[in-house]
Amino acid sequence: MSLKEDLKQNMKEHYLRLYASIQVVLRKSFVRFLCIFFIAISIAAIIISSFVGKSYQLILFGIIFVSSIFFAIEYIFRLLSAPAMHPEQSFLKSRIAYAFSFYGIIDFIAMLPSALAFPYIGTDVAHIVILPYVLTIFKLIRYSRSFRMIGEVLEMVKDELVTAYSACCILITFSAILMYHVEHRAQPEAFSNIGDSFWWAVVTFTTVGYGDIYPITPLGKILGGVISMIGIAMIAIPTGIISSAFINIMQRKKNQKLNNTDDVALQDQEDKSMENAD
Fold first, then answer.
1. Which one of 70, 194, 198, 222 counts the least CB within 10 Å of its CB?
2. 246 near 153, Cβ under 8 Å?
3. How many CA atoms within 13 Å lie on the side-chain side of 81?
4. pLDDT, tens only, 15-32
5. pLDDT tens digits for 187-207?
6. Can you give the pTM of this predicted structure?
7. Between the CA of residue 136 and those of 75, 124, 147, 255, what are the distances in Å?
8. Is 125 helix (H, G, I), strand (E, B) or coil?
9. Domains of the chain, with CATH numbers?
10. Residue 277 and residue 92: Cα distance in Å, rounded?
11. How many CB atoms lie within 10 A of CB 69?
C-alpha cells in the first residue's frame, strides 16, 4: 500500500470514528427526549390550530417552526453521520441510502415547515404546507419498541399478506363489476359507474356497511349477502397471519430472556463453585 493510499485509509477511519460518535450522541436519552417532546408539541399545535382563531395560529405555527428547526439540525447530523451506519459503502452512497430510506424521508419532511410554511402563516396555504408535517408522528417509530415490533411482524409475514390482500383485491374487483351490471338499471344514480360499485364492494367486503349505497334488486341483495359472508372470511386471514406472527415473536423474545437468565444463573453457580474450590 502506498503512502497516499495509507493516508486516505487513515482519514476514512478517522471520519468513521467521528461519525460513529455522532451516532452515539443521537442515541442518547436526552436527544430521544427532545425528539419526542418536539414531536408531541408539534402534533398538538397542529390539532389546536384547527380550534382557535387566526390570532393564536401565529403562536402555534411558531411552535411548529421552532420544532422543525430542531428536526432540521437532527436531519443534518443524521445525514452527515450516515456512513457510520453503512461503513462498507462509500460516504456518498451511505448518505443517499439514508436520505431515501423510510426514516430519512420522514426526517426530511419534519424539517420542511421551517423553510416553506412560515411565509404563508395566516393564509389557507399554510395548512396545505403543514399537512405533510403530520407524517412527523412516524418519527416515534424510531423511539418505540412496540412500533419496531410491529414493523418486525409485518416484515416477517409480508409475502403472506401480499398473497391475502391480492386475493381480496381480485374478489373486490370482480364483485364491483358484477354489482354494477346487476344494479345500474335499477338505481343509475347510486351505481352510476364501476367506481361507485368499487366503493360499495370495499364497504361491504370489510363488513363496515355505511348504508349510503346498497343493492335493491333481489339478485343484487343475494350477491351482497354472499360478498359480506366471503368478506368476513377473507378479512380474518390477514388478521390471523399477523396475530400468529406476533405470538411467535413474543414467544421468541420470552425464550431469549429465559435463556439469558439461565446463562447468568449458570455463570453465578460456576463462580461460586470456583470460590469454594479455592
1. 222
2. yes
3. 17
4. 888 888 888 888 888 888
5. 888 888 998 899 988 888 887
6. 0.65
7. 12, 21, 14, 35
8. helix
9. 3-143 (no CATH), 158-263 (1.10.287.70)
10. 58
11. 15
**DSSP-H helix ranges across 27-134:** 29-49, 54-80, 91-99, 102-110, 113-116, 124-130
194 within 8 A of 177, measured Cβ to Cβ: yes
Nearest-angstrom CA–CA distance, 152 and 130: 30
- Give phi and psi for 32, each to the nearest 5: -60, -40
Which residues fall within 8 angstroms of residue 84, CB to CB, at 6 or more apart? Answer: 16, 19, 20, 22, 23
Residue with cell 450522541: 25
Q: Say how far apart CA 196 and CA 203 lie, in whole Å.
A: 11
Residue-wise pLDDT tens digits, 120-153:
655 666 666 666 667 777 887 777 777 778 878 8
Strand (E) or helix (H) holding 151: helix 145-156
Residue 193 phi/psi, 5° resolution? -155, 175
**What are 10's three cell numbers?**
487513515
Confidence of residue 177 (pLDDT cuts 50, 70, 90): very high
Q: Is the dihedral of CA 21, 24, 26, 31 positive or negative?
A: negative
Kind and range of the H or E run holding 84: none
Nearest residue to 44 (alpha-carbon basis) of 137, 116, 123, 143: 137
Give me the count of residues in the chain: 278
